Amino acid sequence: MYKISEFSKITGLSVKALRYYDEETILTPACRDSETGYRYYSKEDFAKAQRILLLRSLDFSIAEIRDVLENCRDDSDLTCYLEEKRTMIQNRILKEKELIKKMNLYIKPNDREEKRMNYQIEVKDIPSVTVAAIRYRGKYDDTGKYIGKLYKAVKDQGAGAPIQCYHDAEYREEDADLELCLPTKKLIRHPDVEGKTLPAIRAICTTHVGSYSKLNMAYKAIFDYAGENGLACLTPSREVYRKGPGMIFKGNEDGYITDIIVPVSGGVA
Predict the structure, then answer these.
(1) Which domain of life is it from (predicted)?
(2) Do residues 81 and 180 both lie within one domain?
C-alpha cells in the first residue's frame, strides 16, 4: 500500500488532485485509517490513476472520466470510448469551422449571402398536388431520417422535388410540427406514409439560392412584402427543395435552390 505522498510521487498527480478525485469518487483510495483519516492506495489504484492520466491528456472532462471508469472493463471497452470521444472532437471541429466561416462573413461584409441575394417576390396561386407524406415532431434537421423512407415507399411514382411543410407559425428548436412530402403521380397507399393532396393555396413565393442556414432572409423578404401589402401570412408554409444535398454527400451548399411558399389571405394579388 502507498501513502498519499508516495502515491502522488509515483503517479504524477498532486496530493490536491488526489483529494479532489477522492471527493468526486473517481479515484477512491483502497483504504483509509479510521483514526487518522490517512489515505492508502493499492496497485489497482495505480492502474486506475494511469488511466485517469491518459484520459486527462486526451481532454476528457471529469464527468466523462467518471463515466469511462465506471463502465470500462478492458482495453476493448476503452477503445470504444476513445473512438466515441474522437467523433465528438471531430464534430466540435466541424462546428467551430462553421463558426469561423460565419465570423468571416462579418469580417468581410461584402461576402454576406443576404447582401448578395435579391429576392424576387410573387403572389400567385399554387395548384393542389398529390403527395406521399410523413408528419412528425422534431428538429428541423431531422429531415434526413425520413426522406429515404419516402422515396422507398414512392418508388417510381415520384413527380417532383421534396416539400417540407411547417405547421408552426413560430421557430421551434426541439419539437417543431413538420410534414415531409414527396409529389406523386397518383395517390400512394403504403403503411409507412400517408397518401394525400396538399390543397391549392394563394401564396407569397420566392426562391432562395444558397445555404439553408440563410433561409431566414428569404422569410424576412416575404414577411416584409406581406406587411407592406396588407397580406396575412398563414400556415403551413412550404419549402420546395429543387436542388439540395444528396442522400450521402452534401455537395456545394452555395448551389442549393429552395422555393419558399407562404400561404396568405387578404390584400390584392
Answers:
(1) Bacteria
(2) no
